[in-house]
Design goal:
Keywords: Transferase. This protein is of the alpha/beta class and 217 residues long. It is 17% helix and 24% strand.
Length: 217
Amino acid sequence: MNKVDVNNQIAKRVAQELRTGDVVNLGIGIPTLVADHVPRGIQVYFQTENGLLGVGPTPEPGQVDPNLVNAGKFPVTEEVGASYFSSADSFAMIRGGHVDIAVLGVLQIDRFGRIANYAVPGKTILGVGGAMDLLVGARKIVVATTHVTKDGKPKIVSDCTYPLSGTRKVDLIVTEYAVFSVQEEGLVLEEIAEGTTLAEVQRLTEAPFQLGMGIHS
């Protein structure tokens, strides 16, 4: 499976977590693809930190409006009824608990469900963006990430070696291999992707995890 297919597989699974009426913030990278996979019959409202509520799917080629972008400066569309506001108001919305779900990408996530997603030691730091605010303000945090790095190293690790984006635990981790929930006792494997085995998930996951109901060793 190529990278595009993998990324869309992850985004499609994340989209299954959405419910009608949800206000949803999508982080940079794989999370932005979630807008293209909203299940039929589900009406959600995508919000972006630069001040747009009602973000639509990725525009078709030739339909790009250079003035209509998300927080990552990638082109987006707008839904009927979309509204615009200042970045300050957007962050007030996030910090005030008015975002139901935030979908974030990560560099690493540890055994407690804490994420590192903005800085690699020794490399230029562009800034944390809205990650810290979303971790504090969003009601539910879903991680959308490939299971391993480009070098094949696990992203789900015992302890993050990169700076943490915050101390809050996320609620759900979705990769191309598995879905984990984050409980008080740590990570719990809830789903294994079709064509994947438990042994493969164990081999590619550094952090310890428990098996959820329906997962057999």
